[in-house]
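pinning this so it doesn't scroll away 📌
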Amino acid sequence: MKKSNIALFDQLLSWKQAVKAVGNLLLENGSIYPEYIDSMVRAVEEFGPYIAIAPGIAIAHAKPGSEVKKEDVALIVDKKGIEFNSKNDPIHVLFAFCTTDADHHMKFISDLAGLLSDDNIVDKALECESKEDIYKLFFERRTL
């Protein structure tokens, strides 16, 4: 995880704006083609807010495939919160990831679940004041 794949927001974003913002971090890192962002948005439009996996936490993604250049992860923390019309709203921690195949896709979801096992992780994320703080909280001494 690169610090350049982290963004901190303190504004009201729609769920679509948030998914595009976190996807753009992957795009800027050269990990995906723009179509991958469209696929993440379409997945939420088609299947609903299934990406809101826990109170305050969502994981945006799309199917692995030709829209992915390399495996990567990005993260935004939004202090105002994002509404996905989910029981887990507001979302403050939004990850996005991309993988090249189904095996890595499942491993990545498993790795993220372990990373997010701290019941206070959202509160800790909201206390972060910088990308550096967020990086230390989520990724320092971790392999993701």
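📌 and the second one:
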Amino acid sequence: MTEPMLFNSSFGLKLDPFQIVKAISDFINSDPKREYKITVGTDSQKRQDNKADFVTAIVVHRVGYGGRYFWRHMEIAKSYTLRDRMWQEVLTSLDISKELVVLLKNAGLEKYNFEIHVDIGEKGETKSMIQELTGMIRAHNFEARTKPDSYAASKVADRHVHIYD
């Protein structure tokens, strides 16, 4: 997290990575006997002005009992093909995940399942990219999930990327 990376909370607050880890820790500690997953996913949308909007979500999921999430919007002033955007989504999620995992470990939260969610699936234009993108994630020692199991990207981040249409 080389630049100040502020994320939005569902409460309208702007949080830095340390505050996000504290919020995750507080959420888990409020019901520690439950199962948790921590996920990161990015979604994007190309705009008419040849820029692209990228939204990354960090989700802490209390399995079967809801969760909390944090999201960040980035605008990139470059014309993107669908393939370029998918790669940028994965690279963005990887960058955030690598640094988040270190912070989570330092906070004693390394025992929870951690996944990177990619907004691609067996149907649609991106199906030919599944192997290469999930392979990239696995090469960095992360578990990868695609549609329909990639809710951090395909549901949470997607909800916020469309705000910028």
